[in-house]
Write a structure and sequence with these properties.
Helix content: 55-70%
Largest sheet: 2 strands, antiparallel
Number of strands: 6
Distance between the termini: 83 Å
Radius of gyration: 26 Å
Strand order of the largest sheet: 1-2
Oligomer: single chain
Low-confidence stretches: 360-382
Order of helices and strands: EEHHHEEHHHHEEHHHHHHHHH
């Protein structure tokens, strides 16, 4: 740029023609591109700049990317990725670059890091026995990213002051996903297979109600605990909002597994928290049993009663090879077929069974039953 020219008390800077042309080109590109694309680009650039200034911002971005980033299929790769994977790699590179320049790369000394490292070594060593290398890479990558996220968090978040913003972002991300699921439940947004009665099972951006409820189930107990503990700042209020929203999302998902898992988690928390919370366990269990009895007697709405009573009616061990899959028993038969095939695979070839993607998961019960038959699993029908 040329030297500034003074006039009327303002400093006027004359830009070079090339700079003006570049600015005009960027403006034209921004005007021609779709709004969603431009928002994604601007958001990505802002996140990148923020990560360069403070890498912890990348960790906040990861917490948002888990529930909200769409997945993209990789051609000829056999699996898909989301914004979480490249964002994790970028966060790792920035952290390593800062550590190299400062000549300090610190690793946590906790036992959990050692356990995760041992698990990664076992996965990598046994990957040679995988039946599908693309799926093995995908499953192993999940644990690699989990280890990296734990490593980064353990190094950069060491006190309550650093943990509070992290928890706030987690609770807000979970609340946003739960509210999206509530809209789907009320407005009937989703595939016909998710319809239960006059409503649609909440599934958020996960595409399936069970993973959606599983994600919320990891947030709800933590949000509940943070609500019960006084904190400076708005964290306690944010945790209360997260508790209400994630709890609502789990209920609206109509996921029986999530309901049962959350109930067990809450009972364990109550038993370990204090003598006062331990006294709440008997009435809680009694309430759950009462709901089950009302469902059996038909005193609950039909759709809800079917979900409640099916928890006990479908509980049992049976031979999946002798069951004809239908729309009604698909979920139960598929799960049992996976358990049977995986258990028999481990019994026959223990080393190969450790490999990720040893048994390919299928979206139809026919392929799952074929896997069970292939490994010759035999169980007692009950």
């Amino acid at each position: 740029m040329r030297a500034p020219v003074h006039g009327g008390g303002f400093r006027i800077v004359r830009a070079r023609p090339g700079t003006l042309a570049l600015a005009a080109g960027l403006a034209a590109l921004a005007g021609a591109a779709p709004l969603v694309l431009m928002l994604a680009i601007v958001g990505g650039l802002a996140l990148l700049i923020g990560m360069l200034v403070a890498p912890i911002i990348g960790l906040y971005g990861l917490l948002v990317a888990v529930p909200f980033s769409p997945t993209f299929g990789l051609e000829n790769a056999g699996f898909s990725i989301s914004a979480f994977e490249p964002l994790s790699a970028l966060l790792l590179l920035i952290w390593l670059a800062r550590g190299v320049t400062r000549r300090e790369i610190e690793l946590p000394r906790s036992g959990l890091f050692g356990g995760l490292f041992f698990l990664l070594c076992a996965l990598l060593v046994s990957a040679g026995g995988a039946t599908s290398m693309p799926l093995a890479i995908k499953e192993t990558l999940k644990w690699v990213l989990l280890t990296l996220a734990y490593l980064f968090t353990a190094v950069h978040v060491r006190d309550a002051a650093g943990a509070r913003p992290l928890l706030a972002v987690l609770f807000l991300a979970g609340s946003g996903q739960a509210l999206m699921g509530a809209v789907q439940f009320v407005a009937g947004l989703g595939p016909p297979t998710f319809a239960v009665g006059g409503f649609m099972r909440a599934h958020g951006m996960f595409g399936q109600p069970n993973p959606f409820a599983g994600y919320l189930g990891t947030i709800f107990p933590l949000a509940l605990a943070m609500t019960a503990i006084p904190h400076p700042g708005p964290l306690r209020a944010i945790a209360a909002v997260g508790t209400v929203c994630t709890g609502m999302g789990i209920v609206l998902s109509l996921s029986r597994g999530a309901w049962l898992g959350l109930l067990i988690a809450l009972v364990v928390m109550a038993l370990a928290w204090s003598p006062r919370t331990r006294r709440l366990v008997p009435p809680t269990v009694a309430t759950v049993l009462l709901v089950g009895v009302l469902g059996i007697l038909g005193a609950l709405p039909t759709a809800l009663a079917n979900r409640v009573t099916s928890v006990t009616s479908n509980f049992g061990i049976f031979d999946a090879r002798g069951v004809q899959p239908t729309a009604e028993n698909f979920a139960v038969v598929e799960r049992m077929a996976h358990w049977q095939a995986g258990g028999r695979c481990f019994w026959i070839t223990r080393y190969a069974a450790l490999a990720p993607a040893t048994i390919r998961t299928r979206t139809t019960a026919t392929h799952s039953l074929a896997g069970a038959r292939h490994w010759g699993m035999r169980t007692t029908t009950t």
